[in-house]
Structures are given as C-alpha cells and as structure tokens.
C-alpha cells in the first residue's frame, strides 16, 4: 500500500481561499498591505486563510523576488571547542535579532578545507561571512574582501590592515599570566604553544618574553613545545617538557585544550597541580573552576568577540560599506584561582 503524500500549500491556494489575487495575498503576508492600500479586513482574511491552510512561504521564492537570501556564513576551525562554540552562539543570536539565518561550517583546523567551505557558502548566496580562520593562509580571505563580500575575521587574524578583524589582546594577556608565575617565584616555566605562526600564538609568545624581560629573568626558548591548540599537542608537549626538564615548576598552556592535555601528562608523571606543578591557561573553560585545583586562566570575552563580529558584519550588509575602523582588540581578564603555588 502506498503512503499518501500531501503537497505544500501554495500562495495561489491561499489567495483563492481568501477570495483575492495572488499579488494581494503576497503583499498581505509580507507586511506590505498598508503600502499597497490593502484594507485591514482583507489583510486579516488572507492571514486567517494562510493559518487555516498551514501555509509556509517559500524562502527560495522570496529570495528570488527580493534578491536577498538573509543567510550568513560562519566558519570555525573546531565546532567542538567551547571557545569557538560560544562565539558562534553569540553570532547566531545577533543574526536572529536581525532576521538572518546562519549556515555553520567546521574547517577541522585545515586551511584547504576552509577554502573549500568558503567557496561552498558563497555558492549558497550568503550575504556575509564570519571566519575564525585556521590562521595560516589568508589569500582566499583577501580575495573575498576585494569582491566586496561583507567579511569579519575573529580570533586568528592576520597582519593585514584591509581585513576587518576582531581579536583578543593576546600579548597583554600572556604578559599578565607570565608575570603572575614569575612573581609567584617560578623561573623555570614551560610554554605549551598552539599553532606556530598564527597571530594568537605569536602574540602570546611576545607577551611571555615581555614579562621575562620586565623581571630581568633570562628566557629559555628550549622550554617552548607544542604544535597546535588541541589536547593532543598539550599532552605531548607537557610530557616531553616535564620529562626532559624536571626542573620546570610551572606550565603556561596557550589554550584550554592544551591545558587539558597538560593535566593528563602531569598525572601520568606523578606531578600534582599545584603541589608539584603550577598551571595557567590562556582561555577559560567551563570545567576550569570545578577541577580539584581550580585553574587560573586568562579569560577571553567570547560574548564581546561574537557580538562585535556580528555587529560589524550586519552593518556592512546594511550600509554596503566596510567599517572605517577595521582592527578591533578586546581586553582579556586574568582569573586567579588555585592552580598556582607560591614558591618564593
């Protein structure tokens, strides 16, 4: 026995049910009744017919008529990372407030995948794009900006003045975190870096060196390890540093995921935080305050990062012009918990 299928109700059927023309029904349902001098009674009749027939307007047909899709693209390097997920949430909320829908894509920390996803989103006729880049290649993004597609980069920006970018103050945050370790008596500090040559990693390393220089303490570059912002890199880097340099008394993890890996490595090597090893992370995390030793963290304002990115994007769409100020930097906050031991 075949299952019966019902076809979607058309605008023509709504018009017939209300006893009006298709154009009148369309205008009544799109909020243009007053502009076209359609009576309130007719407008209500059309709306009642649409509700009774459970009519859903075709977004495709609407976009063809208006030449607008009301779609925004968002590309993240890792959707599962709470930091990027929180940014995406703020962008989505701001988009909904302005009657946009969001298409979300995950580049899986791969630059080639990022390029492909951007091309796919363009094919969907997005009106604007927010990218949290992998942070290695920017040519495809510079090309988009020259094509006048509204574009905002978040977090891992580039030293490229023509790209609208929203980042945290990575340098000051790293300087403040390292200063806290140094002033707690730590001089042998291992650094668990993220993806080399990306803007956050580079700026955080500069901040670390700044703090050492300000305290007249020699900085040992052999105590830097790691090649990514993920947990695996944090684990491998921490295990190697702690094994090769048992004199290390503190670790500075450049991401919350790096910090998770460091905790696992420390446990396997029999070192307890903070009794045997102090630990600080750049990026706060929902778990940080609930660890056995609540983790001291440099907290990025993900709410502000996401909201500002969305505002800059939507303003570009509405005005057709890029903002005058293209580079935006959001302050960070050091949250001092219980993962650092004073050894002075």
UniProtKB/TrEMBL annotation:
SUPFAM superfamilies: lambda repressor-like DNA-binding domains (SSF47413), Periplasmic binding protein-like I (SSF53822). The keyword DNA-binding applies. SMART domains: HTH_LACI. Gene3D superfamilies: 3.40.50.2300, lambda repressor-like DNA-binding domains. It holds the Pfam family Peripla_BP_3. Residues 9-66 form the HTH lacI-type domain. CDD domains: HTH_LacI, PBP1_LacI_sugar_binding-like. It comes from the Bacteria. The keyword DNA-binding applies. Keywords: DNA-binding, Transcription, Transcription regulation. Residues 9-60 form the HTH cro/C1-type domain. One of its GO terms (molecular function) is transcription cis-regulatory region binding. InterPro entries: Cro/C1-type_HTH, HTH_LacI, LacI/GalR-like_sensor, Lambda_DNA-bd_dom_sf, Peripla_BP_I. PROSITE patterns: HTH_CROC1, HTH_LACI_1, HTH_LACI_2. This is Catabolite control protein A. It comes from Gimesia alba. The gene is ccpA.
